[in-house]
Design goal:
Helices cover about 65% and strands about 5% of the residues. The chain has about 60 residues and is mainly alpha-helical. About 10% of the residues are buried.
Length: about 60
């Protein structure tokens, strides 16, 4: 399992706000479950699957 950093959580939340998209839309764009995203964005989960981490990093990279 990969450990998620607070920087990644902040970056996801900030970019989601800039694009004005919901968690559901973010889930569609990243291919990550909305339940997983909800836990990550609310700080309820620290460990995630490395595949999930790659998907989130890839999405952020595309939108920077």
């Amino acid at each position: 399992m990969a450990k998620i950093t607070s920087d990644l959580t902040k970056a996801l939340g900030r970019k989601r706000g800039e694009l004005n998209i919901s968690v559901l839309e973010l889930a569609r764009q990243t291919g990550v479950s909305r339940w997983t995203l909800d836990r990550l964005l609310n700080g309820k989960s620290e460990n995630i699957n490395p595949t999930t981490l790659n998907k989130l990093n890839g999405w952020l990279y595309e939108h920077v």
